[in-house]
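Hypothesis: this fold can be encoded by more than one sequence.
Test: take the structure tokens below, design a sequence, compare later.
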């Protein structure tokens, strides 16, 4: 087996949703679990994490483990995503590790009926690679104690320390060795809060650092070991724009999954990596990406960060922020072409892939794809166009959003109607068949 290849059915995870397992003071302490188990469609996460660690008070965790068993036994068959409870663990605390081990044994007791609806466990606070192997050994013991197939429980870890970050670089060498079952590894999840504490980082405002390096390293570590990378929680649950910006930045790193704290964030996480239903043009307005408004086939910018004035025959004044220059018509087209970008729709991507496949069958190794638009700024209209060469490497790189869509379509049948409503049945059918 090559560790560069995914060994699990899921190729992508968009949403990682945590739920407290026991709420103190409630008549039904597991009510939040029951509510989450009823989520369907775009509100249901790809991976649901009943959280018996940070989200649950220490004195409620034994009851939380029992609640997980009860809820999965009753509602697990209908839940459309995967279920991976988070148990307690700590690299420096044998007692904590043992408590998590006991809860894993309890949740996988075959007499309860819960194990058939449980896909794996999430292990927090891991340290160096030897600590990961300790957790893996506990998984193996749990499987043997409860009559489960060895390696059937997936193991995901949360990167919350410098030691865990360095361990990702050793994982590739360890997976597949006969002395462990680390091929059970599934997700690498960033935990920026505890990571900040572990590195003793300080910011003037007290807010978390962006930790771009950690997110890059986690994405790289996942790619090298054939795993899936997921970003940590975005605490400002009302800041949808900020959540989108975080996801967009992550996606450019190959990290298509993110932690979700509410069903609303789950919807955003589930839809953000998918191509839009309608393609659109954007403009770099002095460092801010602004979507242009399409009016009768013309892409219109209606802001004050980019200004354009026609001075006379083939002379224009272009102002972007504080940068003002006089240009010819040809120079203007070149300047605008540098500023505008096209975001392709699902239909656009499928069209381009089909066109390239047809060209390849006809014996062509590369073809040019043209993007063109009429852009209007301050009433002045300018024609812009660019040609992009498509070869096999381009085709493979741009296949990722389609592969993501196909993975979602295969593993989340509860979202078929949502996808058909979003894209149309004809586009969905073509997208599921292209590249196969």
């Amino acid at each position: 087996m090559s560790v560069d290849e995914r060994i699990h059915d899921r190729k992508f995870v968009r949403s990682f949703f945590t739920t407290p397992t026991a709420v103190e003071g409630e008549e039904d302490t597991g009510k939040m679990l029951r509510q989450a188990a009823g989520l369907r469609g775009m509100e249901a996460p790809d991976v649901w994490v009943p959280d018996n660690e940070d989200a649950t008070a220490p004195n409620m965790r034994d009851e939380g483990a029992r609640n997980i068993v009860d809820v999965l036994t009753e509602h697990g068959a209908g839940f459309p995503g995967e279920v991976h409870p988070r148990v307690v663990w700590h690299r420096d605390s044998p007692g904590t590790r043992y408590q998590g081990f006991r809860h894993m044994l309890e949740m996988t007791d075959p007499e309860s009926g819960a194990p058939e609806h449980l896909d794996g466990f999430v292990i927090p606070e891991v340290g160096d690679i030897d600590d990961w192997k300790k957790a893996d050994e506990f998984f193996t013991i749990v499987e043997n104690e409860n009559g489960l197939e060895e390696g059937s429980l997936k193991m995901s870890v949360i990167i919350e320390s410098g030691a865990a970050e360095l361990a990702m670089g050793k994982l590739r060498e360890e997976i597949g060795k006969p002395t462990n079952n680390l091929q059970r590894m599934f997700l690498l999840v960033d935990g920026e809060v505890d990571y900040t504490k572990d590195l003793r980082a300080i910011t003037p405002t007290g807010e978390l650092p962006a930790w771009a390096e950690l997110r890059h390293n986690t994405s790289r570590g996942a790619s090298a070991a054939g795993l899936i990378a997921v970003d940590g929680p975005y605490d400002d649950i009302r800041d949808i724009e900020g959540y989108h910006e975080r996801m967009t930045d992550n996606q450019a790193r190959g990290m298509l999954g993110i932690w979700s704290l509410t069903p609303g964030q789950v919807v955003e996480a589930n839809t953000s990596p998918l191509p839009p239903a309608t393609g659109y043009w954007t403009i770099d307005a002095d460092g801010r990406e602004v979507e242009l408004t399409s009016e009768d086939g013309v892409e219109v910018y209606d802001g004050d960060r980019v200004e354009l004035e026609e001075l006379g025959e083939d002379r224009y004044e272009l102002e972007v922020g504080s940068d003002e220059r006089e240009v010819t018509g040809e120079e203007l087209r070149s300047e605008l072409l540098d500023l505008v970008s096209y975001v392709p729709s699902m239909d656009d991507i499928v069209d381009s892939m089909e066109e390239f496949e047809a060209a390849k069958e006809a014996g062509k190794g590369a073809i040019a794809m043209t993007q063109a638009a009429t852009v209007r700024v301050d009433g002045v209209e300018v024609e812009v166009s660019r040609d992009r060469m498509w070869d096999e490497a381009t085709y493979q790189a741009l296949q990722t959003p389609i592969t993501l869509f196909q993975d979602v379509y295969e593993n989340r049948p509860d979202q078929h109607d949502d996808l058909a409503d979003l894209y149309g049945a004809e586009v969905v059918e073509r997208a599921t068949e292209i590249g196969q």
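The chain has two domains: 15-271, 280-397. The chain has a mean pLDDT of 94.
Hypothesis status: open.
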